[in-house]
Design a protein that fits this description.
Layout: H1 2-18, E1 34-36, H2 38-47, H3 51-60, H4 67-77, E2 87-89, H5 92-100, E3 113-116, E4 119-122, E5 129-131, H6 138-141, H7 151-177, H8 182-198, H9 206-233, H10 240-264, H11 268-281, H12 293-298, H13 302-313, E6 325-327, H14 328-333, H15 340-349, H16 351-375, H17 378-381, H18 385-410, H19 412-429, H20 442-468, H21 474-498
Parallel strand pairs: 1-6
Antiparallel strand pairs: 2-5, 3-4
């Protein structure tokens, strides 16, 4: 087989030398059976791909477009009234208070407090006040709009609980990806994400909203991670950086969608309804995609693997003699029994695999903590929250575009080092309090630049982890790393919002 492959390459080179217009050829080992690996088959599919095949691969990661609207819907649905926002009394208690002390009408309600048993409490709650705001807000409806007592922590928890759900989803998903398949697991995640978000249209209770956010994180992270793993497995090694670029590009493009939903829809319940529609639309491909043949091989299911390859080949101009073809990967898979405990044993048996997994988990943790800490805080960093998310989208587009070329040029590890150093430098520069006009500060500008480096490192670690993990452990390692990131994502908003009095956000 190897000699036939070499002769085919030599024949192809001669043919191209003789006729520069020839760009494709009939591979002599495709229609004649023989022994091949999954990598060889994927290479052949890409050599003879059509626009339909390209469209199929590109559609797999459309789930990334729905990611930012799902994550950041609470940033727009829970906007706090700012000092200077007009308000009127709704309750009789409020009217009596203003009549007794008319000067209070000029005060910001969040600053009108009293001491009760040693604790600071608001005198006027949301039920007493009618705010003149362009958008409704769950922060107002649920008395979370003023940073008095534990309200700030309770509101921050609505951001962070999403990642607790994502962590739970990835722990469960890590098992399901390698046991029932990438596609079926993603379908389950899609259903949970859409239905969980849809319930937000009927929510008027804090703990109900907390449960909704947990379900959002649980489902969305399962489907996004599952489809990314599927994409990487259907793409040859040399195109994986490009596939990663496309996925990260879609994620960045999701920020304007999130900002658009938050800006155009005035009612916060309807924001959740619109987000559920976005999730459904951009995850429809999950139900029609083709399962990875690599998954079937690690399950020792040669028949299903060949059916998957045949379905993929239908989108290309090549044909495989699958009946007479032997998949070399199957022989390797038959020597081991795939299970969660076997994967854990492998971590102990292969120190290099364990070391790589632990290093990736640490990198994901640090990157996610910084990334989501800032992305949940644009409302307090830049003058306008909608502008902040749009500028963040532009920054991430720049990051993804440059990360691809840098990774190709200097490699994964060196590129990650460069990105970390860039983020550190700009976050340190952001610490001095320097005004750059009426509303902008040095912190605003440097944080927007710093998040470019963090976004680029996120793009790099996605690709790096997917390539380092072997096929039999890819779902497991990816889920472990992404789970570690969810812990960092949970802590990021807490550090950003609740430690501001004692430390600097940068």
């Amino acid at each position: 087989w190897y000699q036939r492959r070499v002769r085919a390459d030599e024949d192809r080179n001669h043919m191209l030398d003789d006729n520069p217009k020839v760009t494709s050829e009939k591979s002599p080992f495709v229609e004649e059976g023989g022994v091949m690996t999954t990598d060889d088959l994927i290479e052949e599919l890409f050599r003879h791909r059509t626009w339909k095949f390209n469209l199929l691969i590109m559609s797999l990661t459309l789930s990334c477009l729905a990611g930012p609207p799902s994550v950041y819907v609470v940033s727009f649905a829970g906007i706090n009234p700012k000092p200077g926002t007009n308000w009127t009394c709704r309750s009789e208690a409020c009217k009596d208070l203003i009549e007794a002390n008319s000067s209070l009408k000029m005060e910001f309600p969040c600053e009108i407090t009293k001491e009760v048993d040693g604790k600071t409490e608001l005198v006027l709650k949301s039920s007493d006040i009618e705010w003149e705001m362009t958008h409704s807000s769950f922060a107002v409806d649920l008395d979370l709009n003023c940073a008095v007592g534990a309200t700030q922590e309770l509101k921050t928890l609505l951001s962070s609980i999403y990642f607790a759900g994502a962590l739970t989803g990835l722990i469960i998903g890590g098992f399901l990806y390698d046991h029932i398949g990438r596609k079926k697991t993603s379908m389950l995640g899609c259903f949970i994400a859409v239905m969980g978000t849809f319930l937000g249209a009927f929510c008027h209770n804090y703990y109900f909203l907390l449960a909704i956010r947990f379900l959002q994180g649980f489902g969305c992270r399962i489907v996004i991670t599952g489809m990314f793993i599927l994409t990487i497995e259907l793409v040859p090694l040399k195109y994986r950086n490009t596939a990663n670029f496309w996925a990260q590009l879609l994620w960045a493009a999701g920020y304007p969608i999130a900002a658009g939903v938050g800006y155009l829809i005035k009612d916060w319940n309807y924001m959740f309804l619109a987000t559920s529609i976005v999730l459904l639309v951009f995850n429809m491909q999950v139900f029609f995609c083709i399962e990875s043949p690599r998954f079937y091989l690690i399950k020792n299911d040669e028949k299903s693997a060949k059916k998957s390859i045949e379905a993929l080949a239908a989108f290309t101009t090549t044909k495989f003699d699958l009946e007479n073809m032997v998949l070399e990967d199957l022989g390797k898979a038959q020597k081991r029994k795939q299970s969660f405990w076997q994967q854990m044993i492998d971590l102990c048996s292969y120190p290099s695999l364990l070391a790589e997994t632990l290093i990736q988990m640490f990198l994901w943790f640090v990157i996610a903590m910084s990334y989501y800490g800032f992305n949940f805080g644009w409302g307090s960093i830049v003058p306008n929250i909608y502008l902040g998310y749009l500028l963040s989208s532009v920054g991430q587009l720049i990051a993804v575009s440059t990360a691809v070329s840098i990774i190709d040029r200097i490699g994964r590890r060196r590129a990650m080092i460069l990105m970390f150093i860039g983020a550190v430098i700009f976050y340190l520069i952001a610490i001095p309090e320097v005004k750059l006009g009426k509303e902008w500060t040095l912190e605003s500008v440097c944080c927007l630049i710093g998040v470019i480096f963090v976004s680029a490192s996120f793009s790099g670690v996605y690709l790096w982890t997917a390539e380092l993990a072997p096929t039999s452990h890819r779902g497991f390692v990816f889920s472990m790393s992404s789970s570690s990131a969810r812990v960092g994502s949970f802590l990021g908003p807490y550090i950003f919002n609740n430690l501001a009095p004692v430390t600097h956000k940068a």
